[in-house]
From TrEMBL:
High-level lineage: Eukaryota, Metazoa, Hemichordata, Enteropneusta, Harrimaniidae
PANTHER family: CALCINEURIN-BINDING PROTEIN CABIN 1-RELATED, CALCINEURIN-BINDING PROTEIN CABIN-1
UniProt keywords, alphabetically: Nucleus
Source organism (scientific name): Saccoglossus kowalevskii
Superkingdom assignment: Eukaryota
Pfam families: TPR_8 (PF13181)
Acidic residues: compositionally biased ranges: 9-21
Subcellular location: Nucleus
Positions of region (Disordered): 1-26
Ranges that cross the membrane: none
Gene name per UniProt: LOC102801230
Entry protein name: Calcineurin-binding protein cabin-1-like
Amino acid sequence: MLRFTALNEDSDDESEDEEIQESTKEAQEAELFDLYNKALVQQRAGKHDEAQQIYEELLKTTLLAKSSSRTSETKEGLVHPGVVLQYSALKNLAGLAAEKKDYNTAMEYYIKAVDIDCSDVSIWYKMGKLALQVTPTTISQTFI
């Protein structure tokens, strides 16, 4: 971002620092979106293991960890870009686990996604289908 100020004007260093932090945060978000798109390309190409690794790497980033705590506090849903990325990565990881018939892991990812946004009915439908695949003893051991 380009900013012009008078040379003899006293600048407010705090506001400049905030602007730099915001631009840095936006750059980090752009990098995370690129990483997410890379995972989508791998998933579409049938390289599910590579896609899974990228999604998991994406979820480990500090920006997404900060955004998830912000969502639970504000209850605004999928407004923050980091929350959208986290939610989408969790949904995709659940889908990959379900394709591998790892129903318990898929259910765990879906539950984490529902914690972020419980209004997506397609997730509830997929969770219901998975629940039919999981044995009752496994459910009680894993989720209760």
